[in-house]
């Protein structure tokens, strides 16, 4: 396993972690000052400053990208299907412009939450079929652009409204069906927050393999967790065996960034950006 | 599938659903007035009125039980292991005294949450091993008493602090290892709240089979869910395909009670008991 204790070259900051403290340009500048090598930006943060300015800011700060967040939200009624397709193609184009190594897919839940205005449904199997169709369709476009798609299995507590792909096994089954030749253009984004509880975690990490392990996200699970979405913990403050999981992903050959993604309305989003980044660095060296 | 529209003979009330509105005696009386045939009481509610009085109240109200909540909380350090064993044996004895058809097991999460005072651990695999040992040990005692144990897989959002058995597959794997002869003394309590999201739900229901499907719990998953524990929805108010799941459990021969278990701090716990029970009856007939 790589030794992170001496430097933080393998640290990436998902820009949602400090989204309340500044815009994307401010975040790139703060990362450069903290000698952070990589970020993973969100589309709304890119749109806020404009794509060209975002591309320039990333370049000026000497940053690499560890991913781009996010495409997906596939389930939709027929009237909104074209909207979803167009939206996802734009996400691919932006990711390419920014030099991202992959587009992270949060696949969407039931259609009424995935694409607002779609009729109410309780058929999660149907939503899952729409997700698989959507991934297959987008993959044709993204493959031509040479951009890998990273399916992110989300914690089951988000199954209804954010992502109906909820385990690594399920995501890998989709990969096997949609990309059986393992072209390198479809894989997983593995976020410890979503998968740490899975009794099959280690087995499914081995099944993923280096070629399909496209991104690795860290944070921590707090006890108690006071909000389903916005109460993620800083690495080390919760119950996740971070070293054990990193050991497993590195054992299959993963050598990429450890990307910190923390949504924390009442704690980390309220602290100064420099303090948050300094804490990410310290925890990266000591507990990740 | 059974037709529930004309009567509510198959309805059971888990007494936590109205725990704020009255004690166990008051609940049994209200259930009798509403012509409800069964309840599933909690240990603390039984202890509050005393076991003998609880037994008499159930009998006086002409009620059956659909389960007894709950044993479990197995992970513990060595100093607290005997406490856990003794506590679970008392739960078995109480269930037998009350005439319960099974003891529901919420198996516990990491030892520091399962048995307070145990040292802090992040090793969920170790906790799971303790759970399996605990079930095997308790099964010797409960089998002699003729009382089946029902492992309740809990939603993954409770993996740290309440139950590290989080899928039906995982629970059934434990059953296969601990009770390979399928003695009828070990099975599952299937609560739609915990398992509705599982891509393998229908497959694992078939695998469970009639002999291991010991209890069936209903409520609903709300969007948004504002609290991880105390914001369960009334059947019909959320996104769970209740009819589809009941069809699957009845297809394997389940013919028991549909037990309503709702923890709802800001809604159903604040309404009069009669209104809650009347709503359970109406939803049982129309959407369960």
TrEMBL record, chains A, B:
UniProt entry tagged with the keyword Isomerase: yes
Q: Does the keyword Transcription apply?
A: no
Q: Name the SUPFAM superfamilies on file.
A: Xylose isomerase-like (SSF51658)
Stretches assigned to the Xylose isomerase-like TIM barrel domain: 35-274
**Which InterPro entries did the record assign?**
IolE/XylAMocC-like (IPR050312), Xyl_isomerase-like_sf (IPR036237), Xyl_isomerase-like_TIM-brl (IPR013022)
Question: Which Pfam families does this chain map to?
Answer: AP_endonuc_2
Give UniProt keywords alphabetically. Answer: Isomerase
Query: From the Swiss-Prot or TrEMBL record, what is one GO molecular function term?
Result: isomerase activity
The UniProt entry, under PANTHER family, shows: HYDROXYPYRUVATE ISOMERASE, XYLOSE ISOMERASE
Query: What's the protein here called?
Result: Sugar phosphate isomerase/epimerase
Q: Source species, please?
A: Microvirga lotononidis
């Amino acid at each position: 396993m790589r030794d992170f204790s001496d430097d933080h070259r393998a640290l990436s900051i998902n820009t949602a972690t400090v989204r309340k403290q500044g815009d994307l340009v401010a975040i790139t500048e703060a990362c450069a000052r903290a000698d952070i090598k990589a970020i993973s930006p969100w589309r709304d943060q890119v749109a806020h400053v404009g794509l060209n300015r975002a591309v320039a800011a990333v370049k000026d700060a000497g940053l690499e990208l560890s991913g781009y967040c996010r495409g997906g939200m596939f389930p939709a009624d027929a009237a909104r299907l074209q909207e979803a397709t167009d939206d996802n193609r734009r996400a691919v184009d932006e990711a390419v412009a920014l030099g991202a190594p992959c587009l992270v897919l949060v696949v969407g839940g039931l259609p009424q939450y995935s694409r607002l205005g779609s009729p109410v449904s309780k058929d999660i199997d149907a939503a899952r079929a729409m997700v698989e169709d959507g991934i297959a369709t987008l993959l044709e476009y993204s493959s031509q652009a040479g951009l890998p798609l990273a399916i992110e299995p989300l914690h089951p507590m988000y199954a209804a409204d954010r992502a109906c792909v909820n385990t690594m096994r399920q995501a890998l089954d989709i990969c096997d069906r949609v990309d059986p030749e393992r072209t390198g253009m479809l894989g997983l984004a593995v976020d410890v927050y979503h998968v740490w509880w899975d009794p099959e975690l280690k087995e499914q990490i081995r099944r993923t393999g280096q070629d399909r392990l496209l991104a690795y996200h860290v944070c921590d699970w707090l006890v108690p967790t006071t909000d389903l979405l916005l109460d993620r913990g800083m690495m080390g403050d919760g119950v996740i065996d971070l070293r054990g999981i990193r050991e497993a992903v590195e054992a299959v050959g993963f050598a990429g960034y450890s990307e910190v993604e923390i949504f924390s309305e009442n704690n980390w989003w309220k602290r100064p950006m420099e303090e948050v980044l300094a804490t990410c660095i310290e925890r990266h060296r000591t507990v990740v």
